[in-house]
Amino acid sequence: MTAFLEAINLRKTFLDPTRSTLLALDGLSLLVAEGEFLAIVGPSGCGKSTLLRLLAGLERPISGQVRLRGQPLTAPRREIGFVFQRANLMPWRTVLDNIALPLIVSRSGQTRQAQAKAREWVTLVGLEGFAHAYPAQLSGGMQQRVALARALIHEPTLLLLDEPFGALDALTRERMNSELLNIWDRRRVTVVMVTHSISEALFLADRVLVMAPRPGRVRAEFAVPLARPRDRALITEPEFVQLVRAVRAEISDV
Ligand SMILES: Nc1ncnc2c1ncn2[C@@H]1O[C@H](COP(=O)(O)OP(=O)(O)O)[C@@H](O)[C@H]1O
Ligand SMILES: [Mg+2]
Predict the structure, then answer these.
(1) Do residues 82 and 30 lie in contact, with contact meaning Cβ atoms separated by under 8 Å?
(2) Whole-prediction pTM value?
(3) Contacts for 103-110 with beta carbons within 8 Å, 24 or more apart?
(4) N or C: less crowded end of the chain, CB within 10 Å?
(5) Is residue 39 part of a domain?
(6) In the 3-class helix/strand/coil scheme, how is the chain assigned residue by residue?
(7) Distance between Cα 86 and ligand 2 center (Å)
(8) Which of 104, 132, 155 is at the close of a domain?
(9) How far is the CA of 227 from the centre of ligand 1 (A)?
(10) Residue 250, Cβ density class (10 Å: 0-12 exposed, 13-18 middle, ≥19 buried)
Protein backbone atom coordinates (compact mmCIF):
# COMPACT_ATOMS: atom_id res chain seq x y z
CA MET A 1 0.00 0.00 0.00
CA THR A 2 1.37 3.43 -0.92
CA ALA A 3 0.85 5.70 2.01
CA PHE A 4 -1.06 8.88 1.33
CA LEU A 5 -1.24 9.77 4.98
CA GLU A 6 1.15 8.37 7.57
CA ALA A 7 1.42 8.69 11.31
CA ILE A 8 4.75 7.46 12.57
CA ASN A 9 5.23 6.65 16.23
CA LEU A 10 3.17 9.56 17.53
CA ARG A 11 3.49 10.55 21.14
CA LYS A 12 1.39 13.29 22.69
CA THR A 13 1.14 14.36 26.31
CA PHE A 14 -1.09 16.77 28.18
CA LEU A 15 -0.95 18.21 31.66
CA ASP A 16 -3.93 16.98 33.62
CA PRO A 17 -5.67 19.13 36.27
CA THR A 18 -3.31 17.87 38.99
CA ARG A 19 -0.37 19.01 36.84
CA SER A 20 0.83 15.50 36.22
CA THR A 21 1.57 14.34 32.71
CA LEU A 22 -1.08 12.45 30.84
CA LEU A 23 0.13 10.26 28.03
CA ALA A 24 -2.66 10.78 25.48
CA LEU A 25 -0.97 8.89 22.64
CA ASP A 26 2.13 6.73 22.58
CA GLY A 27 3.73 4.80 19.76
CA LEU A 28 0.78 5.39 17.50
CA SER A 29 1.44 4.57 13.86
CA LEU A 30 -0.94 4.20 10.94
CA LEU A 31 -1.00 4.28 7.15
CA VAL A 32 -3.86 5.46 4.99
CA ALA A 33 -3.91 4.81 1.24
CA GLU A 34 -5.10 7.42 -1.23
CA GLY A 35 -8.87 7.18 -1.66
CA GLU A 36 -9.25 4.91 1.33
CA PHE A 37 -12.06 5.25 3.87
CA LEU A 38 -10.60 4.52 7.31
CA ALA A 39 -12.73 4.46 10.45
CA ILE A 40 -11.38 4.70 13.98
CA VAL A 41 -13.27 3.43 17.02
CA GLY A 42 -12.32 3.12 20.67
CA PRO A 43 -13.48 3.95 24.17
CA SER A 44 -13.94 7.55 25.17
CA GLY A 45 -10.69 9.19 26.25
CA CYS A 46 -8.40 6.89 24.22
CA GLY A 47 -7.07 9.79 22.15
CA LYS A 48 -9.17 9.66 18.98
CA SER A 49 -9.77 13.41 18.81
CA THR A 50 -6.15 14.08 19.73
CA LEU A 51 -5.06 11.83 16.87
CA LEU A 52 -7.33 13.61 14.37
CA ARG A 53 -6.03 17.02 15.42
CA LEU A 54 -2.48 15.77 14.86
CA LEU A 55 -3.47 14.35 11.45
CA ALA A 56 -4.97 17.74 10.61
CA GLY A 57 -1.80 19.58 11.55
CA LEU A 58 -3.78 21.52 14.16
CA GLU A 59 -1.48 20.24 16.91
CA ARG A 60 2.05 18.90 17.01
CA PRO A 61 3.18 15.64 18.59
CA ILE A 62 5.83 15.53 21.32
CA SER A 63 7.65 13.06 19.11
CA GLY A 64 6.90 11.17 15.96
CA GLN A 65 5.67 12.57 12.70
CA VAL A 66 2.64 12.96 10.46
CA ARG A 67 3.31 12.77 6.71
CA LEU A 68 1.04 13.63 3.83
CA ARG A 69 2.28 12.21 0.51
CA GLY A 70 5.60 11.61 2.19
CA GLN A 71 6.02 15.24 3.26
CA PRO A 72 6.05 16.17 6.96
CA LEU A 73 2.82 17.86 7.99
CA THR A 74 3.50 20.64 10.46
CA ALA A 75 0.54 22.99 10.01
CA PRO A 76 -3.05 22.90 8.76
CA ARG A 77 -3.48 22.82 4.99
CA ARG A 78 -6.25 23.82 2.68
CA GLU A 79 -6.36 20.33 1.18
CA ILE A 80 -7.39 18.92 4.56
CA GLY A 81 -11.06 19.29 5.48
CA PHE A 82 -12.15 18.82 9.09
CA VAL A 83 -15.60 18.28 10.60
CA PHE A 84 -15.96 18.34 14.36
CA GLN A 85 -18.56 16.67 16.52
CA ARG A 86 -20.45 19.95 16.76
CA ALA A 87 -21.11 21.88 13.59
CA ASN A 88 -19.58 25.13 14.97
CA LEU A 89 -21.45 27.33 12.53
CA MET A 90 -21.48 31.09 12.71
CA PRO A 91 -24.97 31.84 14.03
CA TRP A 92 -25.15 35.28 12.42
CA ARG A 93 -24.33 33.98 8.94
CA THR A 94 -26.74 32.21 6.61
CA VAL A 95 -26.21 28.65 5.39
CA LEU A 96 -24.75 30.00 2.14
CA ASP A 97 -22.38 32.38 3.91
CA ASN A 98 -21.26 29.71 6.37
CA ILE A 99 -20.39 27.37 3.50
CA ALA A 100 -18.67 30.12 1.50
CA LEU A 101 -16.68 31.34 4.48
CA PRO A 102 -13.48 29.29 3.92
CA LEU A 103 -13.29 30.59 0.34
CA ILE A 104 -13.98 34.17 1.34
CA VAL A 105 -11.38 34.02 4.10
CA SER A 106 -8.69 32.54 1.88
CA ARG A 107 -9.38 34.55 -1.29
CA SER A 108 -10.69 37.94 -0.30
CA GLY A 109 -12.39 39.93 -3.06
CA GLN A 110 -13.97 37.00 -4.91
CA THR A 111 -17.13 36.87 -2.90
CA ARG A 112 -19.41 36.30 -5.89
CA GLN A 113 -17.51 33.21 -7.07
CA ALA A 114 -17.40 31.91 -3.53
CA GLN A 115 -21.16 32.32 -3.27
CA ALA A 116 -21.73 30.51 -6.56
CA LYS A 117 -19.62 27.59 -5.41
CA ALA A 118 -21.32 27.57 -2.01
CA ARG A 119 -24.66 27.40 -3.80
CA GLU A 120 -23.52 24.23 -5.59
CA TRP A 121 -22.60 22.69 -2.26
CA VAL A 122 -25.92 23.66 -0.74
CA THR A 123 -27.49 21.48 -3.43
CA LEU A 124 -24.94 18.68 -3.11
CA VAL A 125 -25.69 18.25 0.59
CA GLY A 126 -29.43 18.48 -0.01
CA LEU A 127 -30.15 21.87 1.53
CA GLU A 128 -31.92 23.50 -1.40
CA GLY A 129 -34.40 26.00 -0.09
CA PHE A 130 -32.34 26.67 3.04
CA ALA A 131 -29.51 28.72 1.54
CA HIS A 132 -30.71 31.86 3.29
CA ALA A 133 -31.71 30.24 6.57
CA TYR A 134 -29.70 30.81 9.75
CA PRO A 135 -28.18 27.92 11.75
CA ALA A 136 -30.74 28.33 14.55
CA GLN A 137 -33.49 27.59 12.02
CA LEU A 138 -31.94 24.23 11.08
CA SER A 139 -32.11 20.79 12.67
CA GLY A 140 -28.92 19.19 13.99
CA GLY A 141 -28.66 17.04 10.88
CA MET A 142 -28.96 20.03 8.60
CA GLN A 143 -26.32 21.91 10.57
CA GLN A 144 -23.95 18.94 10.20
CA ARG A 145 -24.58 18.97 6.46
CA VAL A 146 -23.60 22.64 6.39
CA ALA A 147 -20.41 21.77 8.30
CA LEU A 148 -19.69 18.98 5.83
CA ALA A 149 -20.23 21.32 2.85
CA ARG A 150 -17.98 23.92 4.48
CA ALA A 151 -15.25 21.29 4.88
CA LEU A 152 -15.68 20.12 1.28
CA ILE A 153 -15.79 23.49 -0.48
CA HIS A 154 -12.00 23.58 -0.87
CA GLU A 155 -12.28 20.12 -2.45
CA PRO A 156 -10.01 18.58 0.16
CA THR A 157 -7.96 15.53 -0.75
CA LEU A 158 -8.20 14.45 2.88
CA LEU A 159 -11.36 14.65 4.96
CA LEU A 160 -11.05 14.18 8.74
CA LEU A 161 -14.31 13.57 10.59
CA ASP A 162 -14.54 13.53 14.38
CA GLU A 163 -17.81 11.85 15.40
CA PRO A 164 -19.63 14.08 12.94
CA PHE A 165 -23.00 12.38 13.29
CA GLY A 166 -22.91 11.56 17.00
CA ALA A 167 -25.65 13.98 17.94
CA LEU A 168 -28.08 12.95 15.21
CA ASP A 169 -31.14 10.73 15.40
CA ALA A 170 -30.81 7.29 13.79
CA LEU A 171 -32.66 8.09 10.58
CA THR A 172 -30.82 11.34 9.89
CA ARG A 173 -27.59 9.57 10.66
CA GLU A 174 -28.31 6.89 8.05
CA ARG A 175 -29.09 9.56 5.50
CA MET A 176 -25.86 11.38 6.31
CA ASN A 177 -23.96 8.10 5.96
CA SER A 178 -25.33 7.65 2.44
CA GLU A 179 -24.54 11.22 1.52
CA LEU A 180 -21.02 10.85 2.83
CA LEU A 181 -20.51 7.64 0.83
CA ASN A 182 -21.78 9.41 -2.30
CA ILE A 183 -19.37 12.27 -1.83
CA TRP A 184 -16.48 9.92 -1.08
CA ASP A 185 -17.30 7.85 -4.16
CA ARG A 186 -17.74 10.79 -6.53
CA ARG A 187 -14.90 12.98 -5.28
CA ARG A 188 -12.38 10.26 -4.47
CA VAL A 189 -11.42 11.99 -1.26
CA THR A 190 -9.47 10.08 1.39
CA VAL A 191 -11.48 9.86 4.62
CA VAL A 192 -10.46 9.26 8.22
CA MET A 193 -13.53 9.15 10.43
CA VAL A 194 -13.81 8.74 14.18
CA THR A 195 -17.09 7.27 15.34
CA HIS A 196 -18.27 5.42 18.40
CA SER A 197 -20.71 3.41 16.38
CA ILE A 198 -19.13 0.10 15.40
CA SER A 199 -21.77 -0.59 12.78
CA GLU A 200 -21.36 2.88 11.27
CA ALA A 201 -17.61 2.28 11.06
CA LEU A 202 -18.06 -1.10 9.37
CA PHE A 203 -20.82 0.09 7.06
CA LEU A 204 -18.77 3.00 5.75
CA ALA A 205 -15.10 2.05 5.89
CA ASP A 206 -12.60 -0.06 4.00
CA ARG A 207 -10.74 -0.63 7.23
CA VAL A 208 -11.47 -0.10 10.92
CA LEU A 209 -8.83 0.65 13.56
CA VAL A 210 -9.59 0.00 17.22
CA MET A 211 -7.76 2.24 19.67
CA ALA A 212 -7.02 1.43 23.30
CA PRO A 213 -6.54 3.99 26.11
CA ARG A 214 -3.76 4.94 28.54
CA PRO A 215 -1.75 5.45 26.51
CA GLY A 216 -3.76 5.87 23.33
CA ARG A 217 -2.55 3.45 20.70
CA VAL A 218 -3.80 1.21 17.91
CA ARG A 219 -4.91 -2.06 19.39
CA ALA A 220 -6.41 -3.89 16.43
CA GLU A 221 -7.16 -3.48 12.78
CA PHE A 222 -9.98 -4.97 10.71
CA ALA A 223 -10.24 -5.02 6.94
CA VAL A 224 -13.86 -4.70 5.84
CA PRO A 225 -14.18 -7.06 2.87
CA LEU A 226 -17.75 -6.08 2.04
CA ALA A 227 -18.68 -5.24 -1.57
CA ARG A 228 -19.76 -1.74 -2.57
CA PRO A 229 -22.11 -0.09 -3.06
CA ARG A 230 -23.35 -1.13 0.35
CA ASP A 231 -26.99 -1.30 1.15
CA ARG A 232 -28.53 -0.79 4.60
CA ALA A 233 -29.81 -4.37 4.51
CA LEU A 234 -26.18 -5.42 4.85
CA ILE A 235 -26.16 -4.70 8.58
CA THR A 236 -28.36 -7.67 9.37
CA GLU A 237 -26.31 -10.13 7.33
CA PRO A 238 -24.28 -12.75 9.21
CA GLU A 239 -20.95 -11.57 7.77
CA PHE A 240 -21.61 -8.04 9.00
CA VAL A 241 -22.90 -9.12 12.41
CA GLN A 242 -19.81 -11.23 12.88
CA LEU A 243 -17.54 -8.29 12.10
CA VAL A 244 -19.44 -6.13 14.58
CA ARG A 245 -18.93 -8.79 17.21
CA ALA A 246 -15.22 -9.08 16.49
CA VAL A 247 -14.67 -5.31 16.70
CA ARG A 248 -16.75 -5.05 19.86
CA ALA A 249 -14.69 -7.77 21.52
CA GLU A 250 -11.52 -5.72 20.92
CA ILE A 251 -13.07 -2.60 22.42
CA SER A 252 -14.66 -4.11 25.49
CA ASP A 253 -11.58 -6.12 26.28
CA VAL A 254 -9.29 -3.14 26.95
N1 LIG B 1 -6.28 19.97 25.62
C2 LIG B 1 -6.18 18.99 26.53
N3 LIG B 1 -5.67 19.23 27.76
C4 LIG B 1 -5.54 18.24 28.66
N5 LIG B 1 -5.92 16.97 28.45
C6 LIG B 1 -6.45 16.67 27.24
C7 LIG B 1 -6.62 17.66 26.22
N8 LIG B 1 -7.17 17.07 25.14
C9 LIG B 1 -7.35 15.79 25.47
N10 LIG B 1 -6.92 15.54 26.72
C11 LIG B 1 -6.92 14.23 27.40
O12 LIG B 1 -6.30 13.30 26.51
C13 LIG B 1 -7.00 12.06 26.54
C14 LIG B 1 -7.49 11.75 25.13
O15 LIG B 1 -8.51 12.69 24.81
P16 LIG B 1 -9.30 12.67 23.43
O17 LIG B 1 -8.32 12.67 22.32
O18 LIG B 1 -10.29 13.78 23.46
O19 LIG B 1 -10.02 11.25 23.49
P20 LIG B 1 -11.28 10.69 22.66
O21 LIG B 1 -11.52 11.62 21.52
O22 LIG B 1 -10.87 9.32 22.26
O23 LIG B 1 -12.42 10.65 23.62
C24 LIG B 1 -8.10 12.21 27.56
O25 LIG B 1 -7.66 11.67 28.78
C26 LIG B 1 -8.31 13.70 27.64
O27 LIG B 1 -8.78 14.06 28.92
MG1 LIG C 1 -13.18 12.72 20.95
Answers:
(1) no
(2) 0.94
(3) 103/153, 103/154, 106/78, 106/154
(4) N
(5) yes
(6) CCEEEEEEEEEEEEECCCCCEEEEEEEEEEEEECCCEEEEECCCCCCHHHHHHHHCCCCCCCEEEEEECCEECCCCCCCEEEECCCCCCCCCCCHHHHHHHHHHHHCCCCHHHHHHHHHHHHHHCCCCCCCCCCHHHCCHHHHHHHHHHHHHCCCCCEEEEECCCCCCCHHHHHHHHHHHHHHHHHHCCEEEEECCCHHHHHHHCCEEEEEECCCEEEEEEEECCCCCCCCHHHHHCHHHHHHHHHHHHHHHCC
(7) 11
(8) 155
(9) 35
(10) buried
Q: What is the pLDDT of residues 39-93, one digit of tens each?
A: 999 999 999 999 999 999 999 999 999 999 999 999 999 999 999 888 889 999 9
What mean pLDDT do residues 189-199 have?
96
247 shares a domain with 217: yes
CA-CA distance, 162 to 156, in Å (whole number)?
A: 16
**50 alpha carbon to ligand 2 midpoint, in Å?**
7
What confidence tens digit (pLDDT) does each residue in 100-151 have? Answer: 998 888 865 578 888 899 999 998 888 999 999 999 999 988 999 999 999 9
| Same domain, yes or no: 19 and 52 | yes
Average pLDDT over residues 7-28: 93
| Mean predicted lDDT score pLDDT of the chain | 93
As for ligand 1, residues whose beta carbon falls within 6 Å of it are: 14, 22, 24, 42, 44-50
CATH number of domain containing 199: 3.40.50.300
Residues 74 and 85 in one domain: no
- Which ligand has the shortest distance to the CA of 84? 2
Domain count, the chain: 2
